[in-house]
Design a protein that fits this description.
Elements (H helix, E strand, L loop, with lengths): L2 H4 L9 H33 L4 H27 L4 H24 L1
Helix pairs in contact: 2-4, 3-4
C-alpha cells in the first residue's frame, strides 16, 4: 500500500474524498501526457530504425508487469480496509510510474 492509501491518519478528513479524486485525476492526466510522449518517441525510433532489441522487448513486457503489480496493490489495499478510491489509485500507480520513467529515460 502506498503513502496515499495507507499513510493517512484515521481521523476524519472532510477533504479526504476530494483529495483522492484530485490525486487520481492528476495521476491520470500525467500518465496520459507521458504515454503520448513515449508513444511518439518509440514511433520515431521504429521509423528511423534506431530502436534496440532491448527497447522493443521492454515495450511489450513492461505492460504485463505493471498491470500485475497494480492488481496486487489494489487487492492488498482492499484487504487492508482501504476505500475503493484508494485501491483504484494503488492499482493505477505502477502503470503511471512506469510510463513517467519511460518518458524521462527516452528523453535522453
Amino acid at each position: 500500500m502506498n503513502k496515499r492509501s495507507g499513510g493517512r491518519s484515521k481521523k476524519a478528513d472532510p477533504l479526504g474524498p476530494w483529495r483522492i479524486w484530485t490525486d487520481l485525476w492528476t495521476q491520470q492526466t500525467e500518465t496520459a501526457v507521458a504515454s503520448a510522449e513515449v508513444i511518439a518517441r518509440r514511433s520515431m525510433m521504429m521509423m528511423t530504425g534506431s530502436m534496440t532489441t532491448e527497447e522493443a522487448m521492454r515495450m511489450v513486457t513492461e505492460k504485463h508487469t505493471a498491470f500485475t503489480r497494480g492488481i496486487e496493490a489494489a487487492a492488498l489495499a482492499l484487504a487492508s480496509g482501504a476505500t475503493p478510491e484508494h485501491a483504484l489509485y494503488d492499482a493505477t500507480e505502477p502503470v503511471a510510474v512506469r510510463v513517467r520513467s519511460n518518458a524521462r529515460r527516452l528523453r535522453g
